[in-house]
Amino acid sequence: MLLHWFANNIHIDDNNIIQLNFEPNRGDYGIHYYGNHDRLLPNRPTFHYYTVGNLNPDSHNNARALPYDVTRSFYNSRTIHQDNNRDRIIVRIQEEYRNGQTQRTVHQIYITQHNPSMGSDYDPNYTYLIATNLLREIRDLPQNRPTTHTDIQQIQQRYRNIDENVFNDLRSSLMVLEFSLGLLLAIVLSPYNVRGILGSLFLSHRQGDDEDDDDLLQIKVEMRTTRDGKAKICWSGIPLRLIQQGVMVALFKNNKDDALVSKKSVGVSSGSFDTSVPLNPGLQVRLHKCEGLLFRWFGLFPSFGKEVWRGPEFHDANGEMPVYINGHDRTSLQLFVKDGKACVRLYVRKTFTDWKTMFYNSWVGIYPFTTTDKRKYKVYQWVIGFVSEQHTNIPDYNVYVFHSGVTISPGVQVRFMLQKDYSFLLGRTPPWEGQTHPAAADSQWFL
Predict the structure, then answer these.
(1) Of 3, 367, 381, 414, whose CA is between 20 and 30 Å from 218?
(2) DSSP 100
(3) How confident is the model at residue 44 (pLDDT cuts 50, 70, 90)?
């Protein structure tokens, strides 16, 4: 699914020129510089390599922003080990600065796998160049994994002309890999034993040892925000058999922490629960079975039982990447949360050395979604008053932050004003959780 996500986050023009829809030098989605020191790929002085797919947030915090379809296998393994974090995409980019703007051209894209026995290197035996037309095909595939007979038939019909020898070679080479390389295999499958191969490939690397675990894939447990900046647990798609057995949603500090923060037994397949826990990055919802003698006999006083499913860790910016400041593509703005409070992060490329002079009179305001009046901010801060924040994994940027006392809630938004008055609005973040006033998208705000 990593390759499917990537194919849907690039732009391919009629001349097969590829542009990324995110900023690699800023660490978006956990992408970072790859030095190619082992010369896995050709070295050229005008090219830079970047890699994405490391799901470990300790290494790359923004990996939490990747969609759950990409991270689900990582979170839902009975034993968390490196085999669930091996898929990688390597991008070769040529970057030039022209007419005050950074121009990036993607020259080649590879899929590969991290080899734990080789340290941080990638396995040359499982490194493949991806053609541009193949990326187009991947983009058109359904997002969900092909687990039904209808899904498999559609793949068969679309790619039925593949040579059997090519198919057998790919099957032997790629069956050991997981989702992104598995998706490549699905693209080129022939009608020979398709159902069995897809079943083993896409259903063997997930959690659960019950006989009827196939319905776990529909479960969705995630984090939202209450009106007072606390964590809201949301769930849907819980199978009826689990509801009848008794389950609870539980909140943990992060994917590695097993200390329970909050819990609630649930009796319906979908719903939500407002906790008293301040919203913070890393928080994770898990689904557990209810246990205990009194619960089994009378349905009372459930105790904490076996784990069933895990949701994603919460990303501090709720999955949103920074937005560029209009007319200044070396500067970008991001709303994030810490301890239930709205905070602002400003990314400034190190080549933008006179940014404090340019933005000497600039300020940012934190606004509720209930107003489109630029004067009715909750709090403001001069841009030059932001505090430096260390980010060693994004060496091309300086990062500055503002921690406000404003409670984060759905609809909160940050706006960047160029001057002391309200005449020039140069940037604004998406409203938190996408909730906005109908007039908030009015283009007249950009004057």
Answers:
(1) 3
(2) T
(3) confident
Are 375 and 422 contacting, i.e. CB atoms less than 8 angstroms apart? Answer: yes
CA count, 13 A, side-chain hemisphere, 420: 2
How far apart, in whole angstroms, are the C-alpha atoms of residue 121 and residue 157? 38
Question: 120: which 2 tokens?
Answer: 């941080």
In this predicted structure, what is the pLDDT of residue 124? 87
Are residues 281 and 314 in contact, defined by beta-carbon separation less than 8 angstroms? yes
| CA atoms of 178 and 120, how far apart (whole Å) | 18
Separation of alpha carbons 202 and 206, rounded Å: 9
List Cα–Cα distances, 326 to 47, 332, 368, 400, 441, in angstroms: 28, 9, 22, 18, 15
Model confidence pLDDT, tens digit, residues 86-110: 899 999 998 776 776 667 789 899 9
Amino acid at 323: V
As a residue count, the chain comes to 447
Rounded CA separation 232/218 (Å): 20
In the chain, the amino acid numbered 368 is P
Number of CB atoms found within 10 A of residue 434's CB: 11
Cα-flanking dihedrals φ and ψ of residue 441, to 5°?
-90, 10
pTM of the model: 0.82
Q: In whole angstroms, how far apart are CA 444 and each of 51, 123, 372, 413, 439? A: 39, 52, 11, 17, 10
Backbone φ, ψ for residue 432 (5° rounding): -60, 125
d(Cα 157, Cα 162) in Å, to the nearest integer?
11
The number of CA neighbours under 13 Å toward the Cβ of 194 is: 25
E strand or H helix at 137: helix 132-140
